[in-house]
Amino acid sequence: MTEQIVLDIIREGLFTVILVAMPPLLIGLLAGLIMAVFQTVTSIQEPTLAFIPKILAVLLALIAFGPFMITQLTQYFTDLAENFNYFIHPVF
Questions:
Q1: In terms of C-beta density within 10 A (0-12 exposed, 13-18 middle, 19 or more buried), how is residue 44 classed?
Q2: Which of 6, 65, 78, 82 is in Cβ range 3.0-4.6 Å of 23 for a Cys bridge?
Q3: What is the rounded CA–CA span in Å between residue 91 and residue 68?
């Protein structure tokens, strides 16, 4: 296994992790931002108020984007398993 192959595997893995984690994180961030604006406008400074909407938003994002996330992870691991022999004994 060459250094380039290892770097390619790591790069693809990191890209897959970012692609899979992005939807729930962005929706949680958006829900937190909306709750922060709401708290600022209404002058309610309760830190636990934003907790439940963020949890619900992330849960809904996981439900909505779950099939996409599973597909991406499955594709990455399938590609990794299919090329396992090449990673051990690369053809030059």
A1: exposed
A2: 65
A3: 33
CA distance 36 to 62: 22
For the segment 4-30, what is each residue's pLDDT rounded down to a tens digit? 888 999 999 999 999 999 999 999 999
DSSP, res 63:
H
Q: Which two tokens stand for residue 47?
A: 């830190």
Q: Among positive and negative, which fits the CA dihedral 79, 84, 90, 91?
A: negative
Domain ranges of the chain: 3-85
Rounded-to-integer distance, Cα 80 and Cα 75, Å: 8
Calculate the CA dihedral of residues 22, 27, 29, 30 and round it to 10 degrees: 140
Alpha-carbon distance 83 to 79, whole Å? 6
- Report pTM: 0.78
